[in-house]
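Late entry, written up from scratch paper. The run itself happened at the end of the previous shift, but nothing got recorded in the book at the time, so transcribing now.
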Amino acid sequence: MPEPPRSGHAVAAGFLGWTLDAFDFFIVVFLYDTLAAQFHVSKAAIIATVAATLATRPLGALLFGLLADRYGRRLPLMANVIYFAIIEVLCGFAHSYPTFLVLRILFGIGMGGEWGVGSSLAMESAPLRWRGILSGILQSGYSCGYLLAAVAARVILPNLGWRAMFWAGGAPALLALYVRFKVPESQAWVQHRAQSVKAIFGEVAIYWKSFIYLMLLMTLMMFLSHGTQDLYPDFLKVQHQFAPSTISYIAMFYNVGAILGAVIFGYYSERIGRRYSMVAALGLSLAVIPLWAFSSGLARLALGAFLMQIGVQGAWGIIPAHLNELAPDAARGLIPGLAYQLGILFASPVNTIEHHLYQRVGYQWALGGFELANILLLTMVVLLGRERKGRDFMREPGQTSMGAG
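Output as recorded:
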């Protein structure tokens, strides 16, 4: 099969999987008060379900990543999307808080498995010259999912109720059919296929120092994304008393910025390198913190949120290419996804932390102060790391270093 069609289907599968996965995750962000009233618990208890979802994602990364390195990318990806689609539909039938909490924990396993498998399939299939921009397109699926969740909160919630929002999350099951009939297996996986699970863990053991670095990087990246997104709708409601419909429109607007940022900075990462592109994106987010967190008025806050997410997801758009280029060949399905999801495990208290800060110093400083410190630390960690931009996955059968080539 010619290279562009193969890469197109693989990136489309990864993009759609991450879009639908993110949609299912972000539904809860727009339902904090609704679910708290439904289950007769505090809003903090509903926020805790988000942390629980984030905390179990490494289990999914480990399980599906091992399957992807041992048995190929396609079948684990199909199994993954069917699994998290079923769990999401079941969330819509929950009638008690404990049941809902357990289902969100189980959903986290599915969410944790999708990114590593989907990104390795997409990046291994992408032509070298397009890898940066395709990385941005792939990662923008996360923002598209958030955007769709905002649309659902505006359209489905007031007309069909909160349960229907979760039932709409069954759509990913259809993606399995697309993967089955349109997406070919990764030839890079065929070439570097691990002969056993022990061999896969052996790759991880060899590169444990670099793996620890990747976990640190991803922890700070998760603080960046979830710290600027998860509580922002609630911030607009509590701090500025915006109506739910207005908040939904703002969320749609700043997710358009996120999509643009992922693609733009992904493209420039092919020109100026992965790390410098990430630093440029982080610089933008740092510069707009006053507008994003401390301004007032609909127009200024919407603009601040739009620019903030251009920077946040601009940095994130480089991550699929960057992590896959740093990973060893025989464990590319496992290492990027596991580092990604362990990062979210360590960052999973971010919503609780910011909520506690809000109660002590107010919402503006809780969000703005937290991200100011995080972005400065993250920038330093990015600059101290290495990159292997342009690494050819098909032509390096004997070279598996995670350092700079």
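The two ends are 30 Å apart (CA to CA).
(Scratch paper discarded after transcription.)
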